[in-house]
Predict the 3D structure of the following.
Amino acid sequence: MLKRLYLLLIAVFILSAAKAQTADDVYNKYLDFNLARLQGETSKAMDLGQEIAPNSDKLTDKARISFYYSIGKLYEDDSQTGKALSYYEKVAAAVPDYYVVQRALGYIYAKQAEAIADKLNAAKSDPAENKRLTALYTEAVKKALPHLEKAQACDPTDETLARIKVLYKNIGDTKAASTLKARLAAMAKNCIDLLSDQ
């Protein structure tokens, strides 16, 4: 019995050591992930990304942030916005001036607000449900606006500006809408358009 237990412990140790990835292993997978992504091998890149994700803490800080953005983009392009959102949020927290991820977050949250607006329009005859959905809509809009504003400040587009104005109008925030130009000018001073993994 003791011999079997000893053999079992050795087997468990060997298996866990074999599964544990070194920093070099993770980085090599990260390089393969980037290559697959750049070559348009989306399925392979997603598989590698899923292998890297639990061990992403073994990447350097910059490589980890670049990985988070890249895997988030793959998920977004695959219509898995829930998964994309969690990675994008990590990038935005680490590099708040990276406006590319801010735009992605802004549009994801704006899309969520639009889905709530559709339900809101259908619930006009139910005052309690209408009130609940209005609160959810306002919350989603308030999540979207800071991200959209940062993107607009750094890379202005008519589409994003129009969306920002409509969202402020929809929640009735005329005060914030009136100070938009000044906020955009202040935010435009700190913009990052490329992430480096070095």
Q: What stands out?
A: The CA atoms of residues 25 and 58 lie 9 Å apart. Residues 96-198 form one domain.
